[in-house]
Specification:
Helix content is about 60%, strand content about 0%. It is built from three helices and no strands. The N and C termini lie far apart (about 75 Å).
Length: about 80
């Protein structure tokens, strides 16, 4: 019996913690957490980099991407 009641209490506390994340207080303004915004921006930037890398041949074919044509040879390593 002791194990069942302990599990039940843990499930109630987990439910309360999830409700605090999903249902904010009505009195305060609903804003996103800064870490959530930061992680979304980072993931979006990584997604853009991967997509550009995957489609670099097509982007070069239509002239949107050029690899090294504008870099001065002095600055390139031997």
């Amino acid at each position: 019996m002791q194990i069942q009641s302990k599990t039940l209490l843990q499930s109630f506390s987990l439910r309360r913690s999830f409700q605090s994340f999903t249902a904010p207080d009505r009195g305060r303004a609903e804003t996103s957490h800064p870490l959530l915004i930061f992680s979304a921006v980072v993931l979006l930037a990584l997604f853009a980099i991967v997509e550009i890398d995957l489609h670099s041949a097509q982007l070069q074919a239509i002239g949107l991407l050029s690899l090294g044509t504008w870099i001065d040879p002095i600055f390139l390593s031997p």
